[in-house]
Each structure stands twice: as structure tokens, then as C-alpha cells.
Amino acid sequence: xxxxxxxxxxxxxxxxxxxxxxxxxxxxxxxxxxxxxxxxxxxxxxxxxxxxxxxxxxxxxxxxxxxxxxxxxxxxxxxxxxxxxxxxxxxxxxxxxxxxxxxxxxxxxxxxxxxxxxxxxxxxxxxxxxxxxxxxxxxxxxxxxxxxxxxxxxxxxxxxxxxxxxxxxxxxxxxxxxxxxxxxxxxxxxxxxxxxxxxxxxxxxxxxxxxxxxxxxxxxxxxxxxxxxxxxxxxxxxxxxxxxxxxxxxxxxxxxxxxxxxxxxxxxxxxxxxxxxxxxxxxxxxxxxxxxxxxxxxxxxxxxxxxxxxxxxxxxxxxxxxxxxxxxxxxxxxxxxxxxxxxxxxxxxxxxxxxxxxxxxxxxxxxxxxxxxxxxxxxxxxxxxxxxxxxxxxxxxxxxxxxxxxxxxxxxxxxxxxxxxxxxxxxxxxxxxxxxxxxxxxxxxxxxxxxxxxxxxxxxxxxxxxxxxxxxxxxxxxxx
Length: 480
Ligand code: AMP
Ligand code: MG
What we know:
Layout: E1 15-17, E2 27-31, H1 33-38, H2 43-47, H3 49-52, E3 65-73, E4 76-82, E5 86-93, E6 99-105, E7 120-121, H4 122-137, E8 144-156, E9 160-170, H5 176-185, H6 190-201, H7 211-233, E10 235-236, E11 258-259, H8 283-296, H9 307-318, H10 321-337, H11 346-360, H12 364-372, H13 376-381, H14 386-400, H15 405-413, H16 423-433, H17 439-449, H18 461-464
Antiparallel strand pairs: 1-3, 2-8, 3-4, 5-6, 6-9, 7-9, 8-9, 10-11
The structure holds adenosine monophosphate and magnesium ion (MG).
Magnesium ion is lined by residues 243-244, 253.
């Protein structure tokens, strides 16, 4: 591995250096060797993956550290937070020359642990392992996991669970909440910290007349693009607090996430989200709110006499959110539908399709596949109100009539996954893994690597099956 020590060279108020507390009795869980290769791991590093992913082996080239940050959780100021059970184990340079963070999750208590035990459990580690892998394969920018280890060390959650540890990779662990912490507790650090964020993550903005505004616009646009991609694959993050969104717009810290099965935009997958703040349909507006909170933390960067104009300029940056989101969402949705995105009626037609899925409670992923495979009769037969479907189909076929449908059909195949990580698929893999059987983790790992291709040799009927109509969606606990 090649290292880059850049975060450890920042002001020491921004982190606490410490070594991981190794997982006792660590055993191999699963390892993503292809990702390790991409990250430039040598054969020797790969041979040591269990030691690395259980906190037993660290690197002399990088001092492990817990980052401090703050955040708004469920819309309320939560004060100081930080890596309470994770450590930035190293920053390394991948095969493309890009600096990537390796973050060890479940690495023991830190000064930011508050009431927590500093540990992670096998259930949530497997959920993050499979979802990070699935999102990357679906083309959604996201953290990923290089490998995880497990043990019989008991961890108290709602019940006793197995202890586990995982090594996450991400292009960035700097959260919106980092800026909130700095403003509240160490405001003098703001200019230098912002400058570093721009240099590291948006160097092209340095050329701009007003680099901070260019940076803010980029963060806003990247976040909007990420959210559009979530909406398109039916991903609900579950806990979009400002400490769980980073400044590069790659998905991070998705504990109680879910991939939507029936199309229910107001479905709550996080068991602790009593008000439904983080439902699927709220994600764009919550991201917008989080970014507004974040922008307020950039105001002190203006000179006193320029504050008012700077505030206005920041507000203008935020105006990029909606058009960027809509452009990517509309484009992606047209592609999923096999409709030309430039046609004035395509979006309305797609919305009509989504309204049918919603009122008929149809499976989101399966319905798009049926549309792609021209299984119109099957779709209609599942509707209690078939007239609504007939109206849609007339409109749909009218729009496609004079188009290059061959190309549109090809495009559909790159936009509609055959496989998503349904909640019970993950659950099955977890239950077996808790009994030392990782075969289902392995099968899902392989299946989700190519989500757009049918894999009859790997597939099980349940992978495709929509939830039975009498079966409620599972709510996922935040306690992980
Ligand atoms: P999350 O909602 O998972 O993003 O976590 C919010 C904050 O709580 C973060 O600062 C985490 O590091 C911290 N945290 C979550 N679980 C634990 C735990 N078991 N031990 C210590 N800190 C934790
Ligand atoms: Mg978090």
C-alpha cells in the first residue's frame, strides 16, 4: 500500500490519535479481494487481511485516529459527535492515484464514544458490507468495505449479538458536520480546514475567482446527483443526519437503510424515525436542508464588510440543488422507462407509471423489469384498477412510436437492476453467518456484483420475489 498522511497533519484539535482495540478471537468473515487490488494492496497485505480487518495489524506509515465532528440529528443540534467506534486507520493511494480513506469500524472506544461501547455487531457489519458493494455495482457513489471479521465476543444490543469489525473504504470521511464542529468549538480552524477540503477534493475550484463559492456549488451538485441515484434505485439511507453526509456526495454511514420493495414513497425503514423524517420521498428535501445548515457554517469565511453579499451568494449556490437533482432524476427515470428524456411528455408518463406502482403497491424493481421485458399483461393483471394501466400504456406507446426503440430498450437494460439487496436476503445471510456459515454472504456478494445481468446459476427465486401482499416491510433498528 502507498500512504498519504494528509489528515493526520491537520490541527490536532480535529482528531484523537489512538490504536484500535483488536477484536478478540477474530475470524475471517468475507474479503473483497478485487477492491483490495483496486486500492493497491500488495499480496502480503492481502494475506494479512484478517489481521488488518480486526485491528491486530496497523501501519507505521499512518497514525490511526478518531475524527471529531458534530451534527444535526433528526433536525436537532446534537453537539459534539465524532468517531465513537471507528478509526481512520490509514489514507492510501489507489491504483488510479486517488487518496482513499480506510476506516476501521468497531475498533473500540474513543473520546467521542459517549454512551457507546465502541463496537460493531456482525448483523450491521454484513448489512454495510453487502449494501456498499451493491451500491457501487449499481453505479451509486458510495463507501465500500474491503473486508470484515467476526468473533464470538458477545455484544449487548437489543439482544446479545456477535462482535465484528470491518474495514471501510471511502473517498472522504469529512462530513458536513465537520464544519459544524469547527464553527462551534474551534472557529479559528475554519479557513485552513476549508482550504484543505478544496485542495483535496475539489482542486479545480482553486482556479475559480471565488473558490469557496465554487466549492459550495460542487458539494451541492454532487449531493444532488447522489440523491437522484438513490431515488432511481429505490435506496433509502435511513439516517440522513448532517454527520452522515460527506462533502464529496458519496454515500456514507447508512445503518438502518433499505432498498425499497413495494413502491411506498412514505415507507419508514428506520425503526427510530418516528416522524418519518428520513423516508424515501423526503430524501431530496432533507439533503437540501442539510446543505442549508452546512452553508451557514461557511459564512464566517467572508470578511466582515462582505458578509451580507456572501450570504446571498451562498444562497444562490443552493439554488443549484433542485435543477441538478431534477436533471439527473428525470434523465435516469426516462432511461429506466425506455423513454427519450428530451420528449416533453416522458416525465409525466413516468410519473403516471410510479403512481400506478404506488396505488397498486407493486414491487419497484420488478415492475421496471416487467416494463423492460414488455410483460404488459402481467403488469396489468396485478392491478386492481386495470383502466389506469391501459391509460398509461396508451400514453407510453404513443411516446415511443416514432423513436429509436432499439436504442431505448438497450438503455433500459443498463438502468434496471435485476437484483437489489432485499431486506430478507440480507437477513438470511446474517442468520447463517451468525452460525459460522458465510456461504450466503458469498452468494449475495457474487450476485450483487453484476446487478444488471441475469445470473441463473446464482439466483434463488426469493431474490426476485416481491414481498407478499400480506407481509409488512421490515423496519431496521438504528442500534448497530
Ligand atoms: P450513527 O447514527 O451510526 O452515524 O452514529 C452517530 C454517532 O454515534 C457517531 O458519532 C458514532 O461514532 C457513534 N456511535 C454509534 N454507535 C456507537 C457505539 N456502539 N459506540 C460508540 N459510539 C457509537
Ligand atoms: Mg454516523
